[in-house]
Design a protein that fits this description.
The protein is of the alpha+beta class and 144 residues long. The protein has two domains: 2-97, 2-Layer Sandwich (Beta-Lactamase); 103-142, no CATH class. The protein contains five helices and six strands. The strands form two sheets. The protein has a four-stranded antiparallel beta sheet. Strand 2 and strand 3 (71-80) form a beta hairpin. The longest helix has 18 residues, at 99-116.
């Protein structure tokens, strides 16, 4: 949970670990703007403003968390907490680690690059004998 200035008011162990803190108490009173990459900070600031003025109910985006070496991709869902609970000006952020998805994307990109640069014609078929994969060599050969 953060306030309008993106200062952390409450955090759990998972969020602390994801943001490189040894525990939730160490994360408290830190600004999210110091923990994310510049583009992510711009998005956070815009969304906090939209949520504060009631122009949005929730927001969803992929953000980059600063790490020792580079950035860690996280999925962020942010919503304004209800005034009826005395939480006016407080926002809930839910972060999800996207490392596994990023690694899978890199793997798919590598495989696609290998397929596209192969001199061989490569096909893959499903159980219904439909072609589900063909490299670029195939697509150019089919149009000749």
């Amino acid at each position: 949970m953060v306030d309008r200035s993106a200062i952390v008011l409450e955090a759990n162990l998972y969020a602390a670990g994801l943001l490189n803190f040894s525990g939730p108490k160490r994360l408290l009173k830190h600004s999210l703007f110091r923990l994310f990459d510049p583009d992510s900070c711009l998005w956070l600031a815009d969304q906090l403003s939209l949520l504060a003025y009631g122009e949005a109910v929730s927001a969803h985006h992929k953000l980059g968390v600063k790490q020792n070496e580079g950035f860690l991709s996280v999925e962020c869902v942010m919503t304004r907490l209800p005034v009826t609970y005395g939480l006016d000006g407080h926002y809930l952020l839910i972060l999800r680690d996207l490392r596994a998805e990023d690694e899978l994307d890199q793997y798919h990109h590598l495989i696609q690059t290998l397929l596209d640069n192969s001199e061989s014609l490569i096909y893959a078929f499903d159980e219904n004998e439909r072609c589900i994969l063909a490299n670029k060599k195939n697509s150019t050969a089919l149009w000749l």
